[in-house]
Specification:
Layout lengths: L1 H27 L4 H7 L5 H10 L6 H13 L5 E2 L4 E2 H36 L4 H15 L2 H15 L13 H5 L2 H31 L2 H8 L4 H23 L1 H15 L4 H11 L2 H29 L8
Antiparallel strand pairs: 1-2
């Protein structure tokens, strides 16, 4: 186990370095170079030259990358000249709000998807299975922005039950102080996640129900409830634990769209606004953060699978 953990950690480190290299190259492939992209089309040649000299953009790419990587390791993700604020300070304000949104949505998705998947497996090829499968396909195929708009039209415009706009608190506690305004953004992100998780849970439960230990447990006279909740469920949850780590990129990308639809002041909305104003330092800073989070999610999934399933043997 220790050897596997060391290998996977080293692999993750290599991938993270690869992400930083790609992000660094993207900055230098921008039209007109990084100076023109950051300062904007109205910058004069004198301003561009001064910017290039100040930030060492006239040095070899290798030296520039090492310098930039050192800044990343110290938490310096660049500076937004359009917002006149450092990217790391902007992310420090917005990231906790995004974590609240994605965390609550993921928790709700797990609470709903796990029993739904088990129910579908137990009632396989029956009306309840067909109905839930149809709903899962609908929500899974529906674009996040469209689902959000539909929820706003129904619950905010037609029946006036919930606010159409997300909480506008300046802090994480301020966001949590407006629970009613959180319902629609959380529901938008959770419904698509439930659709995916419930399908995986159904397949995992069906696979577990066909295993030899289930037949043995039934042969010993154990009740179906005991077999299901003591033997089947625990093993069926192992792939879901792995899926949770691998689903992190999709959840974050869904958060970007959801935040833009509901004007939720998180990292996704920051990225959306930066894309519209060509604020490249913010775009690249968020890209690095999401890339690192994706690698860590994959590493966490592998570690979780190794810990939960003793049958797995990792070889060299």
């Amino acid at each position: 186990m220790s050897g596997f953990l060391i290998r996977r950690t080293l692999q993750a480190l290599v991938v993270v370095i690869g992400v930083t290299i790609i992000t660094f190259l993207l900055l230098h492939l921008l039209p007109g170079g990084p100076a023109r992209a950051i300062l904007g089309p109205r910058a004069t040649p004198v301003q561009i030259k001064a910017f290039v000299q100040q930030y060492g953009l006239d040095k070899p790419l290798v030296i520039q990358y090492v310098t930039w990587l050192g800044q990343l390791l110290h938490g310096n993700l660049g500076f937004s000249y359009k917002l006149n604020q450092s990217v790391d300070s902007l992310l420090a304000q917005r990231l906790p709000k995004t974590l609240i949104l994605t965390g609550i949505a993921t928790l709700v998705a797990l609470i709903v998807a796990i029993p739904l998947g088990v129910l579908q497996a137990v009632r396989r090829n029956r009306p309840v299975d067909y109905a839930l499968t149809g709903l899962s396909f609908i929500f899974y195929a529906t674009p996040t922005f469209f689902l959000g708009i539909i929820l706003v039209l129904v619950f905010a415009v037609l029946i006036h039950a919930l606010p159409a706009e997300a909480p506008q608190g300046t802090s994480a506690l301020g966001v949590l102080s407006q629970p009613a305004a959180l319902v629609l953004p959380v529901a938008t992100l959770a419904l698509t996640t439930i659709a995916a998780f419930s399908r995986y849970m159904r397949s995992s439960t069906l696979d577990a129900l066909l295993q030899d230990y289930v037949r043995t447990a039934r042969a010993k006279g154990l009740s179906e409830r005991t077999v299901l909740f003591v033997h089947v469920l625990r093993n069926a949850l192992i792939p879901i634990a792995t899926l949770l780590g691998l689903s992190l990129p999709g959840i974050l990308s869904g958060s970007l769209i959801t935040e833009s639809v509901f004007n939720y002041p998180g990292m996704g909305l920051l990225f959306w606004n930066a894309a519209q104003t060509s604020d490249f330092p913010i775009l690249l800073g968020v890209t690095v953060i999401v890339g690192v989070a994706t690698v860590l999610g994959s590493l966490l999934a592998d570690i979780t699978y190794a810990v939960l399933d003793p049958r797995v043997r990792y070889v060299h």
